[in-house]
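Readers outside the structure-tokenisation community will struggle with the description of the input data as it stands. Showing the layout once, in full, would remove most of the difficulty. For illustration, here is how one protein appears when written out as sequence plus structure tokens:
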Amino acid sequence: DKGVKCMPQKVNRVALDAEIQKKLRKLVKSKKTNITVTRRCQILLALDNNSGLKIPTYAQLAERLAVSISTITNTLSRFRNGGIEAIIKCKHSKASWRVQSSRFFRK
């Protein structure tokens, strides 16, 4: 342990109002919501300052939701820049494995 510095656990939070919390919970519960949007909603709900719950670190949340840390940071960034509408949009780049595999299976 001598001379070894631990990096602080990254915890970046959001403050969601009651209306947004309600919308996010509704999306999570809906069977019509795809898994990508569900995970994004769960990320925001978990990092909400107004929830009254202990806020997990990115690493803890990534493990709990089976997502990458970059998914968490991207979700927070999208939400801050575009609100809930940016979270609901589920766009994948043309290079995404989801797009590539869907093309493969259509043949």
